[in-house]
Write a structure and sequence with these properties.
Shape: globular
Structural class: alpha/beta
Distance between the termini: 63 Å
Number of strands: 12
Strand order of the largest sheet: 6-7-8-3-9-10-12-11
Largest sheet: 8 strands, mixed
Number of helices: 11
Helix content: 25-40%
């Protein structure tokens, strides 16, 4: 078999989907794992351990929906997002993605194993908006060059056609086409984030990762960017994975919400079900920290304070990873047996041995 034939066979294998992805699902993640090696030595580096950033998580995202992903810093949210896009190489697991083609049959691609040429095609449909609008734009490039770069990389249009596309995209995100020849330092944080959104939209993607896109912005600017993302989703039929710390923001923009803790997914449900009836003690503690506008309710409700620090992902606890800080942990059970991430109600998943206890909190 020649190298070309072998490469074509590998590409075909990446497109075959043994899991029969339903028509309404655009992304399915199966047993995703991402570990970073810990090494010692200067010249002969020896691996002595691994940081278990993402540990065997599985979930689906449906077409046109927004899945919110929340959790403390260091829990693996951004690592998960970058592994989905192959900006980081997954250690193991599958990422099945539906490549939508107008007038043609959809292709189901395993992004985790796709070869270079196929991955290049997949990235037309999968884009990301980064957290820091000050660091994600090249200060030496004009806005026109930044937004047109994806078009140039993928060989889209002539120079004048790309410039016309840039001006159209600037209008779409609420900026003036006259801004095309300016540099990033001439814009505010909210305007820079809009430029990042325009760049992500350049190739007409169907799926976008929003990695804490408003955390570096003022509250009033956050609302503007969130409303922009809502409008774009309605207009272009986009699907979002929205990563954030602010649970109020997540509730505003998400259709479903997934909660991560120390590399594991501990709960996932429809937005209202998760906020009204959390079934994992970690989710309950997170929600207790969200301020309530009514001062009387806020003054009388009980805040759940988690004791201790987050364990190291290089040496996570045995059993349930949350048991070292859990207020309802049972010795001999939670510290020994890892809970299964299972469906407790229709569409409501949780990894807890005693989910019924949450109802009495």
């Amino acid at each position: 078999m020649t190298d070309a034939t072998a490469g074509a066979a590998a590409m075909d294998a990446a497109v075959v989907d043994p899991s029969n992805l339903p028509d309404d699902v655009i992304l399915r993640v199966n047993h995703l794992v991402k570990e970073f090696p810990i090494t010692k030595g200067i010249f002969f580096r020896k691996q002595i351990g691994a940081v278990k950033a993402v540990s065997d998580i599985s979930f689906e995202i449906k077409r046109g929906e927004t899945l919110g992903l929340v959790g403390e810093s260091g829990c693996g949210k951004s690592t998960t997002a970058r592994s989905l896009l192959r900006l980081l190489e997954p250690t193991s697991g599958d990422v099945w993605f539906r490549m939508e083609r107008e007038g043609e049959e959809d292709e189901i691609v395993n992004v985790a194993t796709a070869k270079k040429d196929l991955l290049r095609e997949v990235r037309r449909d999968m884009q990301i908006v980064f957290q820091d609008p000050y660091a994600s734009l090249n200060p030496r490039m004009t806005v026109a060059s930044i937004i047109a770069e994806p078009l140039l990389v993928h060989g889209e249009g002539t120079k004048s056609e790309r410039l016309d596309k840039v001006k159209d995209l600037l209008k779409v995100v609420g900026l003036s086409p006259e801004h095309a020849n300016r540099y990033p330092h001439e814009f505010s944080g909210g305007q820079r984030q809009r430029i990042g959104v325009a760049r992500a939209l350049a190739l007409n993607p169907s799926f976008m990762v929003l990695d804490e896109p408003v955390s570096a912005l003022d509250v009033s600017i956050q609302a503007q960017v969130l409303n922009l993302m809502d409008d774009l989703q309605d207009e272009y039929g986009l699907t979002y994975l929205f990563i954030a710390h602010d649970l109020s923001v997540v509730r505003h923009i998400s259709d479903r919400v997934a909660v991560m803790y120390l590399g594991k997914m501990v709960e996932m449900a429809d937005r209202d079900a998760l906020y009204d009836r959390p079934m994992h003690p970690y989710t309950h503690a997170l929600l207790s920290a969200v301020p309530i506008p009514d001062p009387h309710i806020e003054a009388n409700r009980e805040r759940i304070i988690l004791e201790g620090d987050i364990p190291s992902p290089a040496n996570p606890p045995s059993g349930c990873r949350f048991h070292t800080r859990c207020p309802i942990a049972v010795e001999g059970k939670c510290d020994v047996d890892e809970p299964e991430f299972r469906e407790l109600e229709a569409g409501h998943w949780a990894a807890c041995h005693f989910p019924e206890v949450q109802q009495v909190f």
